[in-house]
Design brief:
The chain is of the alpha/beta class. It contains 7 helices and 7 strands, in the order ααβββααβαβαββα. A hairpin with a 5-residue loop joins β6 and β7.
């Protein structure tokens, strides 16, 4: 069910996302911050000049766990594109209980905790309200080096080809 939801989520992207999600700006919002799993505070603007996947997900979401595993398997390929994946537990875990973020990653993709192209953390209420106002359990943004949103989608396991296409088109 979640895989189907995730796959269909991006199909009508043009009509739904243009009205529901942030416009393409030429920079990252300075005021949107998050704390990584080691307690370090980041702003999205810290990732300027890099290709970014901003992924907000719930730790109870099966499609999200699948996405984590697939992206882990493909990380060698992803790293070669100066690509950072910011994987954030959405604020309040999209309204349902689930495992702790570090526990989830340790269980499903422990190698990613040591990778320098991955940042795991918890989204603030403000960041979630800006990028996930409908509180979806799985949504990601592909953002170019200038901070412009190029794609909004979900279920990275089902949409890996979209991620790879974004990376290759930005070379």
């Amino acid at each position: 069910l979640f895989l189907i939801f995730g796959f269909n989520f991006g199909v009508n992207r043009e009509s739904r996302f243009q009205t529901q999600y942030p416009n393409n700006t030429n920079n990252f919002p300075e005021n949107l911050k998050f704390i990584d799993i080691n307690g370090k505070e980041y702003s999205l603007s810290d990732f300027k000049n890099k290709k970014v996947m901003l992924w907000l997900f719930a730790t109870w979401c099966p499609a999200c766990v699948s996405g984590l595993k697939v992206l882990s398997d493909e990380n060698t390929q992803l790293k070669q594109y100066n690509f950072v994946i910011i994987a954030l537990k959405t604020y309040n875990n999209a309204g349902f209980p689930g495992p702790d973020l570090k526990e989830l990653v340790n269980k499903n993709a422990p190698n990613l905790l040591k990778e320098n192209n991955w940042v795991f953390g918890e989204a603030t209420k403000e960041l979630t309200s800006f990028y996930n106002k409908n509180n979806y359990p799985d949504i990601y943004y592909l953002i170019d080096e200038q901070g412009r949103i190029k794609e909004v989608n979900s279920a990275p396991a089902a949409t890996l080809d979209t991620i790879i296409k974004f990376l290759k088109s930005q070379q």
